[in-house]
Amino acid sequence: DAGAQLLEVLPEAEYQREHLPGAICIPLPELTAERAQAELDTTEPVVVYCYDTECDLSSRGAARLDAFGFEEVYDYTGSKTEWLAMHLPYEGTVPVEARAGRIAQPAVTCPPWTDLADLPDPGPGDVVLVIDEHDRVLGALRPERLSAGSGPALEVAQPAPSSVRPSITADELARSMDKGGEGYVVVSTLDGVLIGIVERDGLVVDR
What we know:
The protein has about 210 residues and is of the alpha/beta class. It contains seven helices and ten strands. The longest helix is centred in the N-terminal third of the chain and has 11 residues. It is elongated, with a radius of gyration of 21 Å. The relative contact order is 0.14. The model has no long low-confidence stretch (mean pLDDT about 90).
């Protein structure tokens, strides 16, 4: 927002598939002083990113820009996978409609201290998700499988329903769900904030 320049240092094919909005691509093997100074403003901040936290290309790219005399350089260590996992906008050839974040259906939810007797009817996935005041997923309940009784939902909810990030594509998700025998998965951001639910029966993939 403050006008920083975004630089992806991955190969061009990976950049074309998906990249942060407005980013330019100079693959690390091509990051020479001449090209950097031709395509970037040395006096404006530059944020360098690569693929994920285990990829060191962004740190090496940032170090090269420092050596070339750029005044303000940042290494975005979370890089592209973190950006996409937070359900942030991107550009590239992978359509937004093919990702779990767009496919997900709204989930039926309840606060953690909802009494079991007051649970709403389940929604997609045949579950009610327990969420906190920040919409973070705390657990999942299948109301029809609960014995009659009372008490807070949080205490009996399954604490770790399967979840995926919004960036996963429908085809990747279908393979994963088939392998794990899962009928539904929760779609949430990297910090656990609920986006929705994807049911396997609702995934149409070309395989």
